[in-house]
Specification:
This protein has about 475 residues and is mainly beta. The protein has 3 domains: about 160 residues, Protein Transport Mog1p, Chain A, CATH 3.40.1000.10; about 170 residues, no CATH class; about 110 residues. Strand 19 and strand 20 form a beta hairpin. The radius of gyration is 24 Å and the shape is globular. The two termini are about 40 Å apart.
Length: about 475
C-alpha cells in the first residue's frame, strides 16, 4: 500500500508536471525531476544529480534506504542531520520545521548552510518516520533556482507501508530449522561452500531457497533456478556469448530487451531463449539479466518460457487513446532485479570473532577532469568492529572531509566505544540496541551487513 503525500516541504503551494516519469526506490515512489540523472550506491542510497556546467550550478538529492527508526521522528531527524549534514558537510544555521503527519507517517524537515568551493550552499533534510521505520531525504545545492525541483520531488512521494518487522522482510525466523543442507545445484558448481560459517542456506517463506556456491548464490524453487553471479562480464551481450554456451545449446529465436523503455525509472537488460541443457539434455528456457541491483549478472533457468513469464513478467496493457479497441501489451522484466536481494544468510553465534572493517567514501561533485576534481568535497567514514571473547566488542569510527583527490591525504578523526554484543540469527545486539544483520556471500568470503547502525548501513569485511 502506498500513501500519497500532499504538502510536507518548506513551501505548501506545489505545482506538478502531469506526464513526468515515475520511479521507485525502496519504500518511495517519486517523480524524477527534469534533467536529473539517477545512480544507486552499494552503501544503500539513490542519488539524483543535475549539473549545469554553463551556469556552474548543481543540485544533488539523495534517498537513503529505509532503516529501523531510533524511536521517534525528532530523534531520527537529529541523528540524520548529524550523520548526513553537520558531520560530513559541516553544515550550520539549522532551521527546523514543525512536524506534520499523515497515513501513519510523521515528517520533519529542516535546512541549513554549508561551504563548498568557498561558496555558501544549501542543505535540506526531510526525515520520515512510521511503522518502526525511518527514511531520510537529503538535498544539497549551490543555487536557489533548484528549490522548486526539490519541493516538487518531495511532494510527489508515494510511501509504501513496510512489511513488519521492517528490517527482516521475508526472512526465515528460525534458520536452525529452515537452513537445510540439501544440494539443489547447477551442473559445474555442485559444492555448497561454508568457509567455516554456520548457515549456508536460507529458506524463504515464499518458496525460494538460497544456497551459497563457489561461483554464485543459487536461488531455486520447483521448475526455476536462478544464479546470482559473484563475478561476471559487465554486460548481458558479453555474458550471453561467454557464460551461456558453457552449459546450454540455444534453440530458436533469441529475445532481447535492453531497458527501452525502462520500467519505473529502472533501466535493465535481458536476453533469453529456448535451449537444451548440455548436462541433462533437458529442454529449458534460459535468460541472462542485468539490473541496478548489482554489478554482476543474473542467470535464470526455467522448465519453460510460460513458467518464466509467470514468475517474473510485469504485463502492462494500454488502450489506444484514439481507438479503445486497440490494446498495446508490453512485458517488463523488472521483477528479476528483486532476486539480488536473495543473497542473504543468517549470522551464527560464533561467526563474528575477529576484526571487521568498512570504509565509505562520498564525493560531492561529478568531474573526470583531475584539476576540477581537486575542488570536489570528499568525505571518508570508516567503521571497525572487533568482536572479542566473552561477547565483548570494540568499535572505532573515523571521519574526515577534504578536497584532495588522494583520499589517503585526508586526515581522519576517530571516536571509540566498547561493550557487550549478542547474536540471534538475523539480529545483532550492541549494548542492548538491536540491529538487523545478515551475511552477503561473495567469492570466497562474506560481507557482514548491519542495518541502521548510527544511521548507516554497514558493509563489513573481515580483516
Amino acid at each position: 500500500m502506498f500513501l500519497k503525500l500532499k504538502a510536507i516541504t518548506l513551501l505548501l503551494l506545489i505545482s506538478f508536471v502531469a506526464n513526468a516519469q515515475r520511479a521507485e526506490y525502496d519504500l518511495v515512489k517519486y517523480t524524477i525531476p527534469e534533467g536529473f540523472t539517477i545512480s544507486d550506491s552499494d552503501s544503500g542510497m539513490r542519488e539524483l544529480v543535475k549539473i549545469d556546467n554553463k551556469n556552474k550550478t548543481w543540485c544533488k538529492i539523495v534517498i537513503y534506504k529505509s532503516i529501523e527508526s531510533r524511536g521517534d521522528v525528532n530523534t531520527d531527524f537529529t541523528t540524520d542531520w548529524k550523520d548526513f549534514a553537520s558531520t560530513p558537510l559541516q553544515a550550520y544555521a539549522l532551521k527546523e520545521n514543525e512536524i506534520t503527519e499523515g497515513g501513519g507517517w510523521k515528517f520533519k524537515a529542516g535546512g541549513g548552510k554549508f561551504k563548498f568551493n568557498k561558496q555558501e550552499c544549501t542543505v535540506l533534510l526531510t526525515s520520515i518516520t512510521g511503522y518502526k521505520t525511518c527514511i531520510a531525504i537529503l538535498a544539497t545545492t549551490n543555487n536557489s533556482s533548484y528549490s522548486k525541483s526539490i519541493q516538487d520531488f518531495i511532494a510527489s512521494f508515494d510511501l509504501k507501508t513496510p512489511d513488519l518487522p521492517a528490517t527482516n522482510n521475508n526472512m526465515p525466523t528460525n534458520p536452525e530449522e529452515k537452513n537445510s543442507t540439501q544440494n539443489n545445484s547447477t551442473s559445474g558448481n555442485t559444492t555448497t561452500t561454508s568457509n567455516g560459517y554456520k548457515f549456508n542456506n536460507t529458506k524463504w517463506d515464499d518458496g525460494w531457497t538460497s544456497y551459497i556456491k563457489e561461483n554464485w548464490v543459487e536461488v531455486s524453487k520447483p521448475g526455476i533456478q536462478v544464479l546470482l553471479y559473484y563475478q561476471s562480464p559487465e554486460d548481458v551481450k558479453t555474458g550471453w556469448n561467454t557464460l551461456i554456451p558453457q552449459r546450454y545449446a540455444i534453440q530458436g529465436n533469441v529475445m532481447s530487451d535492453y531497458g527501452s523503455p525502462t520500467y519505473g525509472g529502472m533501466a535493465y537488460a535481458i536476453t533469453g531463449a529456448n535451449a537444451k541443457e548440455k548436462s541433462s539434455g533437458a529442454q529449458v528456457y534460459v535468460a541472462l539479466f542485468k539490473g541496478p541491483g548489482s554489478n554482476a549478472l543474473i542467470e535464470i533457468k526455467a522448465d519453460n518460457f510460460e513458467l518464466f513469464k509467470k514468475e517474473f513478467a510485469t504485463v502492462i496493457a494500454e488502450k489506444s487513446p484514439w481507438d479503445a479497441s486497440q490494446v498495446k501489451t508490453t512485458i517488463y522484466w523488472n521483477k528479476i532485479n528483486d532476486m539480488y536481494g536473495r543473497n542473504k544468510f543468517a549470522v551464527g553465534t560464533n561467526d563474528l570473532a575477529g576484526t571487521w572493517f568498512y570504509k565509505d567514501i562520498v564525493q560531492l561533485g561529478n568531474s573526470s577532469n583531475t584539476s576540477a576534481a581537486a575542488n570536489n568535497m570528499i568525505t571518508i567514514i570508516t567503521h571497525e568492529f572487533k568482536f572479542l571473547p566473552g561477547n565483548q566488542y570494540q568499535y572505532k569510527e573515523g571521519n574526515g572531509t577534504g578536497t584532495d583527490t588522494r583520499t589517503e591525504n585526508i586526515k581522519l578523526i576517530y571516536s571509540t566505544n566498547s561493550g557487550k554484543y549478542s547474536v540471534t540469527d538475523w539480529q545483532l545486539s550492541i549494548n542492548n540496541s538491536a540491529f538487523s544483520s545478515y551475511f552477503q556471500a561473495i567469492k570466497n568470503n562474506r560481507i557482514l551487513i548491519i542495518t541502521g547502525f548510527n544511521g548507516r548501513n554497514l558493509f563489513l569485511l573481515k580483516k
